[in-house]
Automatic annotation (TrEMBL):
PANTHER family: 64 KDA MITOCHONDRIAL NADH DEHYDROGENASE (EUROFUNG), APOPTOSIS-INDUCING FACTOR 1
Assigned protein family: Belongs to the NADH dehydrogenase family.
Top-level taxon: Bacteria
Keywords per UniProt: FAD, Flavoprotein, Oxidoreductase
Pfam families given in the database record: Pyr_redox_2 (PF07992)
GO molecular function: NAD(P)H dehydrogenase (quinone) activity
Listed Gene3D superfamilies: 3.50.50.100
FAD/NAD(P)-binding domain location: 3-285
Listed GO biological process terms: aerobic electron transport chain
Name of the protein described by the UniProt record: FAD-dependent pyridine nucleotide-disulfide oxidoreductase
């Protein structure tokens, strides 16, 4: 039997599984999914869990069941590419013939002292749960600072405002405007929403260090009760440790078939892969589907055909009743993009 091991049951890993099992698989193939949790966590919604606007049970999706799919619960500690072996915490190593790495990302603290120790994280289910406890145990009128004015920072600030109208909330952002990579129209709309809902935006802030009750803008102290970190991501530590060529963001460089050039039996998906897109669930899913096509072609001794990835756009929420989006070059704001995002979430929960 040949063994394909998939590391990570997130958007990329499950999209690959869905594509593979959508048609006939070789009779001598076993597919093994390794994940530390017994379900998929809908990571794009972890901001809502941390803010307290949804329960964690709403963000769980059960793994699919197929005859040739084995699900193994465990935590990957390292990958031995030379010997085709996966090392797991307090378990025997698992060997593979082909490997798909879809382990996702973790926070990028940019070397800021105290950031890892003294800020809340949204990058894991357990981290979002802990953030929820800390944020929702705050006393009324406490001060919350959210570092980063990107999509995650905006969404957690908006949902926290709905969940805790008694808190003082501020976003600390390095740029001149939030969501700086998006059109001015979207940024202006978001800033108006925050002004109307009493969320402060402090622009031009360069966080130099974090202490238990203080954030520093270079040398200027900013008193806080809790700091939430949404100022960047990087591949998980297991991928960071791989001695492979990587791009400036630490993501693994791949060939046209999404294989590691020096180890073509290894594929890398999503946040760990060097793709021409900002890391997202949508990009991971689209890439994983193509890897499914590549694997099937190679199993049939055919040359794979890969087309450039195309994404549908980006949607964001401002609480339960407002949102924003970018579809190609078209900006959309208000109720409609929020409804669209709810529809995408509904579909994600029922994917299998």
């Amino acid at each position: 039997m040949k063994k394909l091991v998939i590391l990570g049951g997130g958007y990329g890993g499950l999209a690959l599984i869905q594509e593979l099992f959508s048609s006939y698989l070789p009779h001598d193939l076993e597919v093994v999914l390794i994940d530390r949790m017994p379900y998929q966590g809908l990571k794009t919604e972890y901001y809502a869990l941390a803010a307290g606007t949804v329960a964690d049970t709403e963000l769980r999706v059960q793994f699919p069941e197929y005859d040739k799919l084995t699900i193994h619960y465990g935590e990957v500690t390292s990958i031995d590419l030379e010997h085709k072996r996966i090392h797991l915490h307090q378990e025997d190593p698992m060997e593979y013939d082909q490997l798909a790495i879809a382990l996702g990302c973790t926070d990028q603290y940019h070397g800021v002292p105290g950031a890892a120790e003294y800020t809340c994280s949204l990058q894991s289910f357990s981290g979002a749960r802990e953030s929820y406890l800390r944020l929702n145990n705050l006393k009324p009128y406490s001060q919350v600072h959210i570092v980063g004015g990107g999509l995650s920072g905006i969404e957690v600030a908006a949902d926290l405002r709905e969940s805790r109208p008694d808190l003082n909330i501020a976003i600390l952002d390095r740029g001149a405007r939030v969501l700086s990579s998006f059109p001015n129209r979207l940024s202006a709309y978001i800033q108006r929403w925050f002004a109307e809902n009493d969320v402060n935006i402090l622009s031009g802030v360069s966080v130099s260090r974090v202490e238990p009750n203080m954030v520093y803008n270079i040398e200027q102290p900013i008193a806080t009760d809790i700091t939430v970190w949404t100022a960047g991501i990087q591949p998980v530590e297991v991928v960071q440790k791989l001695a492979l060529p990587k791009d400036r963001s630490g993501r693994v460089m791949l060939n046209e078939w999404y294989q590691v050039p020096s180890h073509p039996e290894v594929y890398v998906i999503g946040d760990c892969a060097s793709l021409p897109f900002v890391p997202s669930a949508q990009a991971a899913g689209a890439q994983a589907e193509q890897i499914g096509h590549v694997l099937k072609a190679l199993w049939n001794e055919e040359k794979p055909k890969v087309h450039p990835l195309k994404l549908k756009g980006t949607l964001g929420s401002l609480g339960k009743r407002a949102g924003f989006g970018l579809m190609g070059k078209t900006s959309v704001i208000g109720r409609v993009p929020r409804l669209l995002k709810s529809g995408v979430l509904w579909k994600s929960k029922r994917h299998f």
